[in-house]
Amino acid sequence: MTSDISGKDPTPRQLGYRWPAEWEPHAGTWLAWPHNKQTWPGEFTHIPAIFQQLIKTLLQWEPVHLLASEPVIANQARNWLKPLTTSTPHPLHWHDIATNDAWIRDFGPTFLVSAPSDGPARQLAGIDWPYNAWGGKYPPYELDQQASGKILSALGVDQFRPTMVLEGGAIEGNGAGTVIITESCLLNPNRNPDWSRSMVEKVLLDYLSVEQVIWLTGEGLPGDDTDGHIDQLVRFVNSSTVVVASCDDHQDACYQPLADNLRVLKQSGPLAGRELEVIPLPIPQPVEHGGQRLPASYCNFFIANGGIIVPEFDDPHDQLAQEILQDCFPDREVVGLPASKLVWGLGTVHCLTQQQPATHHL
Description:
Strand content: 15-25%
Number of strands: 21
Radius of gyration: 19 Å
Mean pLDDT: 94
Oligomer: single chain
């Protein structure tokens, strides 16, 4: 299925699908084993150990699906992950799917679920968005373009293929009818030239089954090469509450644009029948590499079945960020993942993960 604004094919909304919130039960989490040394120039040797820790943490809570093409990449991954295969409560599933990079949040599928009227089981489907490596910034990316469709084919589920270019990190939803996005990303001519806000909104309403779209400018995080992905700026923690990246240093260039995001969200009106609660989540002190400021944000956390994985930057704000998120998720364990080296690749935990919702109640 390839139609979006033309209306030629049935949309996910018409077929009863919706995009569930990240905190809803998962069947597992998808990752892609890192192998592109150009993503972390000069620091790649640190990355496999961080991935090992990420996978070990996830396997305490849910199954993990790992893309690692045979034989070379898969052998590298097995050397690192062999100790985990017999000591975790959940399985690690291997998939011989080649990738150019590890940012599966952006090139992987957006999973949808439907709720049949005759029982509790849900059907799974997925959106295979067109992908062009954040506006053509990092060729080659042909393997990443193909990975989403291969994942959905491996699962044997319905696939929807819009014509609007979109990365998974560019959308943030509450599973209850609202999605938050940024102008700087979705309206960028390097992705969707000549698209209007109304055209973008129609695709999101038809494909994610939402009722409300909140737009932010996308400004506020220096060093962000995604043109303003929302998952670095704002995250839902329940259907009517968001945490928002904030800066407490008035001299920092981040201060005003992040404060503007806070103001816009507070003025956005009710969500899911309640006023939107906005919780500031302070960013760390500037993280730099070779004189370049990196897009370090605690908003790039991942919600798993039993816990929250939060990037750590060897910063005094690490503990505060975890305490704020623990208050937001009292029934989940909050765990930090070292990200000072990881963020040299210009992304961290959420960018590297893609949840697959459960089709049965857990």
